[in-house]
Amino acid sequence: VWIFGYGSLVWRPGFEFTSRKVGFIRGYSRRFWQGDTFHRGSEKMVQHPVTTLLFDFQACTWGVAYEVRGEQIAASLEYLNMREAVLGGYDTKLVKFHPQEKDAEEPILALVYIATPQNPSYLGPASEEDIAAQIIVSSGCAGHNIEYLLRLADFMRYFCPQAEDKHLFSIEEALISILPCLYYTEESLEET
């Protein structure tokens, strides 16, 4: 079984796997339109955005597919169903995953978790500036939401430099404009 991750699963799957591949799925774009009241938010805050996928015929979303085998299958699906479905409000779908590797053969069928507008935690569209402002004040048991955004942006830059994710990088840019102190270099720290 293959499992495709496009949010925190790209750096913190939380389950054992046999192999992993960087690649993309077609027909979806990543959006910070899902609320999270557990991992990256709390019941006290109204909005705490994390990613979901939006059907978008012309788009593709980059991430990581994990191969699980044998006893890993039941354990990983049990973990993910709690993490993504019960706590996160996501539904599961099968998608065609296209590995980044040059010698990759046919696409791989992979399981993916997607939040839909019908779920009660769905936030829907907002400006990148509003989403960045919400991220700044959101944290939960898995850590601060700023970490979620920055790790995802770093993953895209390092593993998928050819890919565009305007939504993700616009939110990161808005966050930087709100909190420029997050990006001090060692030189600027030495000068102060």
UniProtKB/TrEMBL annotation:
It is found in: Cytoplasm, Cytosol; Golgi apparatus, trans-Golgi network. Transmembrane segments: none annotated. It catalyses: glutathione = L-cysteinylglycine + 5-oxo-L-proline. Keywords: Apoptosis, Cytoplasm, Golgi apparatus, Lyase, Neurogenesis, Notch signaling pathway, Transferase, Unfolded protein response. It is an enzyme of class 4 (lyase). GO terms for cellular component: cytosol; Golgi apparatus. The keyword Cytoplasm applies. GO terms for biological process: apoptotic process; glutathione catabolic process; nervous system development; Notch signaling pathway; response to unfolded protein. InterPro entries: ChaC, GGCT-like, GGCT-like_sf. It comes from the Eukaryota. Its EC number is 4.3.2.7. GO terms for molecular function: gamma-glutamylcyclotransferase activity; glutathione specific gamma-glutamylcyclotransferase activity; transferase activity. The keyword ATP-binding does not apply. Catalyzes the cleavage of glutathione into 5-oxo-L-proline and a Cys-Gly dipeptide. Acts specifically on glutathione, but not on other gamma-glutamyl peptides. Glutathione depletion is an important factor for apoptosis initiation and execution. Acts as a pro-apoptotic component of the unfolded protein response pathway by mediating the pro-apoptotic effects of the ATF4-ATF3-DDIT3/CHOP cascade. Belongs to the gamma-glutamylcyclotransferase family. ChaC subfamily. This is Gamma-glutamylcyclotransferase.
